[in-house]
Amino acid sequence: MPLASDYTFNPTTRRSAGHRLIKSSDGDTLVVEQPIRLVSCDTPEKAQYAGRPETAQPKLDLCRQRLEGDFYDELPAELRTYLIGKLTGDAAERHILAAVDASAHFDAILDRRLTRPDGRQRRTAVLPTGEIIDTYGRMLAYVAPWFDNTDADPLPLPTSPERRTFNLDMIADGWAAFFPIYPSLPRLSDMRIAVAAAEEAWDDRKGMWAAYGDSLLLGYEYRMCIKLAAASAGDEGVAEAFQRTCIDLRTLKIVGAFGFPAVPPSLRLWVWNDELEDAQAALGLLD
Q: Up-side HSE of residue 119: CA atoms within 13 Å toward CB?
């Protein structure tokens, strides 16, 4: 039987990604090894992204030269000044070292919080959100320890630090920049907790800022600069590096793809440029 002619549903899909098959339990259920991207937080990039410091630093140097010259003259002076101030001669080395330290800090959190008092390993609680799967095949989620809620493993009170997600741990400890991206946002009460933790980490210069200074390129800033260096033309670099629009969480005002330097790192909300109209309606964003 032919389908109705008005069947026009077009599902949202992502490109496929290869995952290792763990097992199958029946004819329509299987278990795969699934990478998970912690949402709302962003750690510095390791050397895998743009090479070791001796390889990455020339790329950042080229980005600085382009920002100082007329290659990117369409970018606002305030943005160029902001990025130039972070593109120091040791920017790549400090960023990559911060990435290594952030990874070690994360491993320590996992070891501590996933070990039960009796020494056994806890399971993890995974809460997928927003887009669910990103363009790289990673599940977008908030992740926390799983408690069995038994006498031997009671569920902590909601206010207990032991109920925090690993996402929040990394933000609060200053080893991840707060990086909320619509539509993968927490509910309002959790957003307030995350913003408060991010503000404290930034104001008190915890974690990566304590170790590597205020001029440390954040993860998304580092990726921007590498893309600006890689482009063969100015308009190509701008399109590739600035695919998201920034919102000031204090006012819900749209500051644009280039206006984020005017907003403290702890108060930046991001929206993909092609989803701005939807986000504006859903969140009540102000022009």
A: 0
**Identity of the residue numbered 77:** A
Taking phi over 0 as left and psi of -120 to 50 as alpha, with beta for the rest, 219 belongs to alpha
What pLDDT, in 10s, does the model give residues 261-284?
A: 999 999 999 999 999 999 999 999
Is pTM beyond 0.70 here? yes
Highest mean pLDDT (candidates 8-17, 27-36, 68-77, 144-153) = 68-77
Asked if the structure places residue 87 within a domain, the reply is yes
Average pLDDT value over all residues in the chain: 93
CATH number (domain holding residue 266):
2.40.50.90
Domain total of the chain: 1
Residue 16 lies in a domain: no
Report CA torsion sign: 83, 84, 85, 88.
positive
The answer to the question of residue 97 being in a domain is yes
In angstroms, the first-to-last Cα distance of the chain is 50
DSSP labels, 175-204: SSEEE-EETS---HHHHHHHHHHHHHHHHT
Q: β-pairing, 268-272 with 181-182? A: parallel
Per-residue pLDDT tens for 90-147?
Answer: 999 999 999 999 999 999 999 999 998 888 999 999 999 888 888 888 999 999 999 9
Q: What is the DSSP letter of 121?
A: B
Bridge partner residues of 23 (DSSP)? 31
Q: Yes or no: say if 189 and 163 are a contact pair by the CB < 8 Å rule.
A: no
Q: Which domain holds residue 108?
A: 36-283
Q: Examine residue 125 and state whether it is found in any structural domain, yes or no.
A: yes
Residue among 201, 242, 239, 198 at smallest CA distance from 223: 242
Bridge partners of 244?
A: 272
With H, G, I as helix, E, B as strand and everything else as coil, classify residue 132.
strand
